[in-house]
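Feature request disguised as a bug: please show the residue count (190) next to GUN4 domain-containing protein in the output. Example input:
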Amino acid sequence: MEEQIPPSPATPVRTAKQPTPTTQAVELKSEKGVDYLRLQDLLKMGEWKAADQETADQILKAMGKDSWWQIESKDLLNFPCADLKTLDQLWVKYSNGKWGFNVQKQIYVACGAKLDGKYPGNEIWREFCCRVGWRKGGSYLNYSDLTFNLKNSSAGECPTVCGVKGLLEGGLGRDGKGFLLFSRIQTCKL
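Example output, currently without the count:
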């Protein structure tokens, strides 16, 4: 069993399987025909907020949905692995390993959550949100209050589709489904 060191809110989680940025090109694979080129371009340019919004749009496309309100738990538990891998690799590469779904998953587990598809409870979810910078001073942040600043943000702040953006704009966080994507990361072996 790998040792995990709980981070402070601004310290990245370090484990034996820490995602590391790559200098190799990310293969933009999609099981659903989603084109990730625009997302890649936004990430290359450091347009983090626009890339976050593009990620949310591409996730909807990969699930064949027009609205976040249409998403059910089964959609997340069956999210296309190739698409999830592409999204994660893009974020990890262009953020130098600071952001991405796998980074978030590791922080989530370090907070005491299990990757069993069950809600971890409010205490663990709040701790996770504090560590990734979505909650400060006992309150959840508004989407407009996030830094989208690679240098000054918390590890795991982006993409926000599982949390802040979801809570405010009808995404995965609106009814406690965001954590399901972390279980899918485990299933897809990312």
